[in-house]
Amino acid sequence: MVTISTGYAFNRTRNTYLATHLSVANTHWSRFCGLMGKDTARFPAGEGLWIVPSHGVHTFAMKFPIDVIYLDANKMIVHLEQALKPWRVAPVSLRTASVLELPASTLQGSGTNLGDEIEIVLGESRRAGTA
């Protein structure tokens, strides 16, 4: 079970939204389950899952690839995984405090890169195209 929260993820460095509807996985079970079993139609562009805390992810029982952003405690990007395929284990990083899972192609489309600063806001929503 994923804790649903209305929120967003914004790349301050690139001045672009990564997710305009952000869910949070912040319990042991919700972090373990993540996006397992979810259909790609239920994770379209603009969706995101923030996993807190996390040092890495797996894509077991997933049906589609995802982009993964590893964030340190200051929400700076320390590692990226583009189009991580289903049934994989991503690297573990002890520098990572949380992980942001996004639909594949989000990183490329937004120009997101290592060192970028990400703003995560819960309790508010933003529509795509409004910066």
SSE blueprint and pairings:
Elements (H helix, E strand, L loop, with lengths): L6 E5 L4 E4 L1 E5 L2 H6 L13 E5 L14 E6 L5 E8 L13 E6 L2 H5 L7 E5 L9
Parallel strand pairs: 3-4
Antiparallel strand pairs: 1-2, 1-8, 4-7, 5-6, 5-7
What does this entry look like structurally?
With 131 residues, the chain is mainly β. It is 8% helix and 34% strand. A five-stranded mixed β-sheet has the order 3-4-7-5-6. The chain has a three-stranded antiparallel β-sheet with strand order 2-1-8. A hairpin with a 5-residue loop joins strand 5 and strand 6. It is globular. It starts with 6 loop residues before the first strand and ends in a 9-residue tail after the last strand.
Low-confidence stretches: none
Radius of gyration: 13 Å
Structural shape: globular
Strand content: 25-35%
End-to-end distance? 31 Å
**Largest sheet, described in full?**
5 strands, mixed
Q: Give the helix proportion (percent range).
A: under 10%
Q: What structural category arises from helix and sheet content?
A: mainly beta
Estimate the mean pLDDT confidence.
Answer: 90
Strand order of the largest sheet: 3-4-7-5-6
Order of helices and strands: EEEHEEEEHE
Counting H and I runs of at least 4 residues, what is the number of helices?
Answer: 2
Number of strands: 8
Question: How would you sum up this structure in a few lines?
Answer:
8% of the residues lie in helices and 34% in strands. It contains two helices and eight strands.
What attributes characterize this protein structure?
mainly beta; 131 residues; three-stranded antiparallel beta sheet; five-stranded mixed beta sheet
